[in-house]
Design goal:
Umud Fragment, subunit A, 2 domains, 12 strands, about 40% helix
């Protein structure tokens, strides 16, 4: 006969701070623990795919998963404690814990709650990787891209897309300001390497042809050293010419020249807040 040892509910609670379900595994509920570990992951994956999908919009209903995760985490903590207690009752085991161990366990739980457990640290690490390499959120600080992007809009930027595909004319891109590495700007891509660019009659001419399409259905004004009337410029190799949609009030390539490819951060593809304006960036 296996000599079973009593389970300490406080230890189960502390383990649940480390990883969801770990406290249940410790309390002898293996299947329950595995289920509790995977539930947040299975819920987070489709939510993440929905948010990063270019063609979806966001709404207040997406706050429900956040509420669910908070409630679920609280439930897992309480359940881990109860599982350990039930294990002892079912097996007629009496736990013996000294005051010193009890204080140590309470201290451990407090520190895990205060400093974050390994699961939270891993989540933060993954979030950091996603931010630096895949998707990053940006806030629009001005009206230079209105009406496409309004001041205060929160947008998502795909930082991986240009590692797989080439830039396309009309893309809304985020880049490091060539004249100040501490600033990041968002503009619309107009001129590709080798293109000749000229602004005249409130239109942009690329290689002597009027630039047409919904993304360019607006007036453009002659401004700055690189946008003078009657001046045709050629975009250098590995560089791009960008303009703000609000041409009358935009500091863009007309003033600072070209954006080197090395300065690219990514493609702005979705407004996610405010909810009333959420959706793909065209």
């Amino acid at each position: 006969m296996i000599n079973k040892k009593p389970k300490e509910p406080l230890l189960a609670l502390m383990l649940a701070f480390v990883f969801p379900g770990l406290g249940q595994v410790y309390a002898g509920r293996l299947k329950r623990g595995i289920l509790f570990f995977f539930i947040p992951i299975l819920c987070a994956i489709p939510l993440f795919l929905y948010v990063i999908n270019q063609n979806t919009s966001t709404s207040p209903i997406l706050l429900l998963p956040a509420i669910f995760f908070i409630g679920f985490q609280f439930f897992v903590l309480v359940d881990s404690y109860q599982c350990a207690k039930s294990y002892n009752i079912v097996n007629n085991l009496v736990r013996k814990i000294t005051t010193g161990k009890r204080v140590l366990l309470f201290t451990g739980i407090f520190l895990f709650a205060l400093i974050l457990g390994p699961a939270e640290i891993i989540a933060i690490g993954l979030a950091g990787y996603m931010r630096n390499n895949v998707v990053q959120a940006f806030s629009i600080p001005s009206k230079t891209m209105s009406p496409t992007l309004m001041e205060g809009d929160l947008i998502l930027v795909d930082k991986a897309i240009y590692k797989k595909t080439e830039l396309k004319r009309g893309d809304v891109i985020v880049f490091i300001f060539p004249q100040d590495a501490d600033k990041e700007l968002v503009k619309r891509l107009v001129g590709l390497p080798g293109d000749s660019v000229e602004i005249k009659n409130n239109k942009v001419y690329i290689n002597d042809k009027v630039l047409e399409g919904p993304a360019f259905n607006r007036s453009y004004y002659n401004r700055g050293a690189f946008g003078l009337e009657g001046r045709k410029i050629t975009v250098p190799k590995d560089s791009y010419y960008v303009l703000g949609d609000n041409s009358e009030n935009s500091q863009d390539s007309r003033f600072f020249g070209y954006v080197p490819r090395k300065n690219l951060i990514g493609k702005a593809y979705k407004i996610y807040f405010p909810f009333s304006r959420s959706g793909p960036i065209r």
